[in-house]
Specification:
This protein is of the alpha/beta class. It contains nine helices and 15 strands. α8 packs antiparallel against α9 (244-254).
Length: 277
């Protein structure tokens, strides 16, 4: 299955894609928007995107892209994020004075970087991309922070493993397919949806009360601004459901109270970190 990711081969998205689709043929893109465009244009069959990190929070851009395109979430998985200091073969940790990685990865390794003040941190567009650059430049005074898979893929060396500040570091990834394609009628006990409410007192409470009366349990809710409409918001919700039929009922009870309602997908819960997937 041709599966698009944002970032380079060897990235955490690459690792998650192979976890979700064991025979995936990885197609890398520089921008997440390009991944979605390729999906809706049938250039790829699926996309794997990070949607939320247990430490850094949600990837807001990906919620917006899910809403904007005719796609649905097919599956999700949780990936334990392990950051490693990676250098060229034969490089010693004392040789390193510059470290490159994605800004989120750098932020998650603050303690290690503080303990090595000689190392100056530089933001890069992708964790695996920073390893790719390192190998291309053959710079023994630079290092990257990325996954063990990235080190193996590009032929680099792990100088120090597990340098993240917090070991409880997980990222939730979605497998996204075009609407109507994929395993979109299989078992489901979780739903993601987006809705907006009228700008009047109590409208959000009324909408959420409908879900409560239905017995649908919300596990996540957050708001995002509506582009081009200052001070108007779209609410993104994850909720537990007993079946796809309950998910459909949840959409129906919300519609009278909402200006817009869209299911982003029904799927099986990946489970709590460390207990499943």
């Amino acid at each position: 299955m041709k599966t698009g990711i944002q970032g380079e081969p060897g990235s955490f998205s690459h690792e998650a894609a192979l976890k979700l689709v064991h025979d995936a043929v990885i197609v890398p893109f520089s921008l997440s928007a390009d991944v979605f465009q390729a999906l809706v244009k049938h250039d790829i069959e699926a996309a794997v995107i990070p949607i939320e990190n247990s430490l850094a929070g949600s990837v807001s851009e990906h919620f917006d892209l899910l809403l904007a395109h005719d796609v649905k979430v097919d599956r999700e998985t949780l990936l334990r994020i392990r950051h490693n200091l990676i250098g060229l073969s034969g490089t010693g940790i004392g040789d390193i004075d510059r470290v490159f990685s994605h800004p989120v990865a750098l932020a998650q390794c603050r303690r290690f970087l503080a303990d090595h003040p000689k190392m100056e941190a530089y933001s890069f567009y992708d964790t695996a991309g920073s390893v790719k650059q390192l190998v291309e430049l053959r710079d023994h005074h630079a290092a990257a922070i990325a996954s063990a898979a990235a080190a193996e893929y590009y032929g680099a060396q792990i100088l120090t493993a597990g340098i993240e500040d917090n070991p409880e570091n997980y990222t939730r990834f979605f497998l996204v397919r075009r609407t109507g394609e994929g395993v979109l009628d299989g078992p489901a006990n979780k739903m993601s949806l987006a809705f907006s409410v009228e700008n009047r007192p109590g409208s959000l409470v009324e909408a959420l009360s409908e879900l409560k009366q239905l017995g649908t349990n919300l596990t996540k809710i957050e708001s995002r601004p509506v582009h081009g409409k200052p001070w108007e918001y779209i609410f993104y919700v994850d909720c537990q459901i007993q079946s796809r039929e309950e998910g459909n009922r949840a959409l129906e009870v919300l519609r009278p109270h909402c200006a817009m309602v869209k299911s982003l997908g029904c799927y099986e819960d990946a489970g709590k970190a460390g207990t499943k997937n």
